[in-house]
Amino acid sequence: MSKIIVTGGLGYIGSHTVVNLLEDGFDVVIVDDLSNSQHDILRRIETITGKQPEFLQLDISVRDNVMSVLRRHSDADAIIHFAASKAVGESVENPLLYYRNNLNSMIFLLEGMQETGIPNMVFSSSCTVYGQPDKLPVTESTPFRPAESPYGNTKQICEEIIRDVCNANKNIQAIALRYFNPVGAHDSHLIGELPRGVPNNLVPYITQTAAGILPELRIFGDDYDTPDGTPVRDYIHVVDLAIAHRVALRRLLDRRQKNNYEYFNLGTGNGYTVLEVVKAFEKATGVQLRYRIVARRPGDVEKIWADTTLANRELGWKAERSLHDMMKSAWEWQLHLRDHPELLGS
Length: 346
Ligand code: NAD
Ligand code: UD1
Prior knowledge:
The protein is α/β, with parallel strands linked by helices. It has eleven helices and 13 strands.
């Protein structure tokens, strides 16, 4: 049985991936400091899968913690590295927090892999590395633009660090996955996104408005060069994303890579405007949403969606779930959270 260390495995995307790995027979060790998740998510993963992954509550931006985990599990076949700080606005206010957490954890994990011989890593990157591209959809060869935020910069730098380490050490194999906009939740409604405070991202904002927690959705600008003037994104269901991690992992374990460092766009390949998302939500749930157009949000790109040809061809993976599915599952998760507010902490 292959053993996989999953950093950030109790977080939003990590927990869905852990479920998928356990269901596929992988032995999973979760490392999470609970800075943006809850211990209860572990119990929920166990309820869904009937399996008990090992859990270590540790901060992986501390070198000794990383070394102790990797030495103890030096027989692991791979690391999936989700753990990071991810709030764009917070990264602008407190850049050092982001550089310390996201870069230290990457450096220490790679050092630990070199020392212990753990050969494989899957890394959570983001479409934010592209900024606003000239040509759409974006392919993996679209050049990076200067990052819009310290958070985005950490993703660019992490990819560069992996690339250089893989160049220097052919025993290390890595795949970076550039997620577009992950939304939705697991079919069990037991795990999903846990936004702290007022959400920044569109879909949690929509579901909290529909639930009456927030008074109205503010749509940031309707004067963009898009079909209805609101920005376009490529929303992808988190379960489709989780499956892509398992597929990428298999590629690493089976040594099917073309190079020891590869990177893939993970989206559906479809772009939707904010107003189209609002309409899809209303149609999927029957709930009318209160919204108002306000000024543009600084730093927003106008439109971006993925060319997923490379992931489709090389990974043999394709996102299956529609925007309708995403809205329905996000809403069902919101209804579950209404009954379990303790999950969101104080
Ligand atoms: P999340 O915050 O839900 O999950 C991250 C998990 O990592 C949390 O459980 C948190 O407690 C843990 N963590 C953070 N710092 C840690 C540390 N130093 N040591 C141990 N654990 C730590 O976030 P997510 O949405 O699941 O994102 C996972 C990854 O995907 C992140 O790297 C994020 O930057 C990336 N990503 C997310 C999105 C998105 O929209 N959610 C988009 C693109 C990329
Ligand atoms: C944002 C981050 C990105 C990060 C991603 C996932 C920025 C500039 N980018 O992407 O780096 O990887 O989150 O965490 O912050 N919108 C509204 N009203 C709202 C919220 C959002 O109209 O209340 C609009 C936005 O203007 C945008 C779209 O909805 O056009 C999606 O926004 P969001 O969910 O925040 O994701 P991104 O901005 O694409």
